Q: What sequence folds into this?
């Protein structure tokens, strides 16, 4: 079974631009979560989508948004990029049954210059 | 979600068992214990989970104390490729608006 895939793997953007990252979950997984990982803050939860609805949201500004499509694929968008948005962005998917372990993709490394 | 406490780093000799401890003294009855690991710059990898019974899979064993206030992840024969940061997480076993809260984890170094 194919794992979680994320595209692109690497991205360089400049301050003020916006970026869209994509995540394809494991087949049959309907929950998709996004995390940001930086050296200073570690792994932090951004948001979770289930059946095209945002079900949970972390403590990030409104510049960070996401959506989920009917095929469970998900995208996240960051507008008006700041230098501090440079991070590894990770997507994780899970089935909607106990105990809901999440499987992570390889991540997208975003560098903002 | 209950907080967990893990040692910041540990060393283990290649071929020996690696025993990674985790304290979760405020765990609730409906909270599972999950273990993940992250090899440098890769996505975290799910290892194992448990509620109250000991669990074993092809990667590791999970030993949970009877009072559930602590657990140990055991890698039976550590290899150099097991060098990674290991995260112990507890969270409720339902899927309504729950997320995984990752702490700093334990950096395991497997030495030749």
A:
């Amino acid at each position: 079974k194919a794992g979680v895939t994320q595209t692109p793997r690497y991205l360089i953007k400049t301050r003020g631009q916006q970026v869209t990252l994509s995540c394809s979950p494991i087949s049959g997984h309907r929950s998709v979560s996004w995390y940001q990982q930086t050296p200073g803050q570690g792994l932090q939860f951004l948001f979770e989508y289930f059946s095209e609805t945002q079900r949970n949201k972390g403590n990030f500004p409104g510049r960070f948004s996401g959506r989920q499509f009917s095929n469970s694929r998900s995208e996240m968008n960051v507008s008006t990029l700041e230098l501090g948005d440079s991070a590894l962005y990770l997507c994780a998917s899970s089935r909607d049954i106990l105990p809901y372990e999440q499987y992570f993709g390889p991540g997208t490394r975003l560098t903002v210059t | 979600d209950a907080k967990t406490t893990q040692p910041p780093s540990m060393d283990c000799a290649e071929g020996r068992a690696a025993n990674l401890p985790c304290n979760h003294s405020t765990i609730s009855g409906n909270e599972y214990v999950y273990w993940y690991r992250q090899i440098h710059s890769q996505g975290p990898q799910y290892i194992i989970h448990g509620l109250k019974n000991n669990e074993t899979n092809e990667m590791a064993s999970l030993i949970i104390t009877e009072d559930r206030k602590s657990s140990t992840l055991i890698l039976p024969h550590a290899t150099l490729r097991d060098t990674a940061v290991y995260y112990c997480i507890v969270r409720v076993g339902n899927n309504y608006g729950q997320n995984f809260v990752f702490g700093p984890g334990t950096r395991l170094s497997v030495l030749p």
